[in-house]
Amino acid sequence: MARTPSNMLPLGTKAPDFSLLDTLSGSVLELDQLKGEKGTVVLFICNHCPFVIHVNPMLVTLANIYQEKGINFIAISSNDVENYPQDAPELMTKVAKKENYPFPYLYDETQEVAKAYDAACTPDLYLFDQDLALVYRGQLDDSRPQNGIPLTGQDLKAAMDALLSGVAITTVQKPSLGCNIKWK
To answer: How far is CA 75 from the centre of its chain?
Structure first.
């Protein structure tokens, strides 16, 4: 499995807008419809990446906790489905249902959204404040497939807690690490 780090989009960057197909509802959804009252987590994930499969349970747990606190989660898959058919939209729907995603799972067919966010890997995580300004980007925590470190979500959790408390996010922002986005 490839080990590609995040590009670390500059803090303060405004979340690029998008309109993408939600593979769960079949509707085209926009960022403005999906953003949270207090913050928004944008996740670039896919179906087959071992790094994403590893973190899926924690993403679901955190989304279930923090969406109730006003931070919405949005998942996007931008992989080339011609060369990686396991990431096709109909299979995204199956994965989202199997994993009980409490958030939309959007399909970025043109890959323009991934490019706008400078996404590089799966999972790639971005936390935006209530005004959609980037306040955190990077890893969920130090856990990786087969490294023996427990999955806690501590890095993203600390950033979301700081955002909700109105204090500066002081955690060191380490790049996420995962499979590269499969570009066309």
So the answer is: 5
